[in-house]
C-alpha cells in the first residue's frame, strides 16, 4: 500500500499544481477505487491538501501578483467554513457525502462549460465581506467531502466575477491553504484523521505540484479550460461509478 499511496500522491500533486485544486477531487475517487471508504479517503485527502496548497501557492506567487487581498478574504472565509467540516462529516453517512460530492461536481462542470475562459470585461469589484461569505460557504461544503473548495470557488470567480481562468485557479489553490488547514483541525478534533497515510501522500505530492505549475504556465488559456473540464468530467464519472 505504501508505493500505491506514493504514486497517488505524485499524481494528485501534479493535478493540484496544474489545475489549481487542492487535489481532493481526484484523490478521493482514487482512494475509493483502492478500497477505502469515504471518510478514510477524506482524512487522507485533507492532509495532502495542506502540503500541496502551501507549496503550490508559494510557487504561484513567483509568477502571478495581485492575488493577496482577494486570496486572504476568500481564504479567511474558507478557514471559518472548514472548521465546521468535522461536524458535517460526523453527521452524514459515507453514501450521503458521496452524493454531495457528485452534485458539487455536476454544478461546477455546467458553470465552467458555459463560461468563457477569459472575459472581455474587467473583473468585478467585490466587497471583502462578500468574498469572506463565499469562502465560508465553499469551505464548509467542500472540506466535508474531502475537496479543497476550488472546484466551487473557480466557477464562481470565472462565471460571476469575470476572473481570468488561470488567475481564478491560482486563487482557488490559495484558498485551499485556509480551508484544508481548518478541515485538518476540525477532523482531528473529531477523531477522523489517518495521519501517517496522509503525510505519506502529502510529501509525494510536492514533486507533482512543482511539475504541474511549471506546465500550467506553458499552456494557452483556451486549451487550459478544456483540460479542466476533462478533469472535472472524469472525476464526476468515477464518483458516479462508485456511488450508483
TrEMBL record:
**GO CC annotations, alphabetized:** plasma membrane
Which terms are listed as keywords in the entry? Cell membrane, Membrane, Transmembrane, Transmembrane helix
**What is the name of this protein?**
Probable membrane transporter protein
- Superkingdom field: Bacteria
Q: What is its main location?
A: membrane
Pfam families attached to this UniProt entry: TauE
Transmembrane ranges, per UniProt, are 6-34, 41-59, 71-92, 99-116, 128-158, 170-189, 195-212, 224-241
Tell me its family. Answer: Belongs to the 4-toluene sulfonate uptake permease (TSUP) (TC 2.A.102) family.
Q: How does it sit in the membrane?
A: Multi-pass membrane protein
Where does this one sit in the cell?
Cell membrane; Membrane
Amino acid at each position: 500500500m505504501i508505493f500505491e499511496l506514493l504514486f497517488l500522491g505524485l499524481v494528485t500533486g501534479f493535478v493540484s499544481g496544474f489545475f489549481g485544486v487542492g487535489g481532493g477531487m481526484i484523490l478521493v475517487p482514487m482512494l475509493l477505487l483502492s478500497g477505502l471508504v469515504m471518510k478514510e479517503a477524506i482524512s487522507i485527502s485533507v492532509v495532502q491538501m495542506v502540503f500541496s496548497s502551501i507549496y503550490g501557492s508559494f510557487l504561484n506567487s513567483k509568477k502571478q501578483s495581485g492575488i493577496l487581498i482577494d486570496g486572504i478574504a476568500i481564504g479567511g472565509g474558507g478557514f471559518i467554513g472548514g472548521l465546521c467540516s468535522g461536524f458535517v462529516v460526523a453527521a452524514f453517512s459515507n453514501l450521503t457525502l458521496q452524493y454531495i460530492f457528485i452534485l458539487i461536481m455536476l454544478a461546477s462542470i455546467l458553470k465552467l462549460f458555459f463560461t468563457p475562459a477569459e472575459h472581455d470585461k474587467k473583473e468585478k469589484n467585490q466587497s471583502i465581506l462578500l468574498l469572506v461569505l463565499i469562502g465560508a460557504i465553499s469551505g464548509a461544503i467542500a472540506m466535508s467531502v474531502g475537496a479543497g473548495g476550488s472546484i466551487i470557488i473557480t466557477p464562481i470567480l470565472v462565471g460571476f466575477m469575470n476572473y481570468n481562468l488561470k488567475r481564478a485557479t491560482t486563487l482557488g489553490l490559495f484558498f485551499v491553504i485556509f480551508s484544508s488547514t481548518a478541515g485538518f483541525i476540525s477532523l482531528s478534533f473529531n477523531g477522523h484523521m489517518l495521519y501517517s497515510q496522509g503525510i505519506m501522500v502529502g510529501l509525494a505530492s510536492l514533486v507533482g505540484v512543482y511539475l504541474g505549475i511549471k506546465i500550467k504556465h506553458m499552456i494557452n488559456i483556451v486549451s487550459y479550460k478544456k483540460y479542466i473540464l476533462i478533469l472535472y468530467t472524469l472525476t464526476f464519472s468515477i464518483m458516479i461509478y462508485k456511488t450508483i
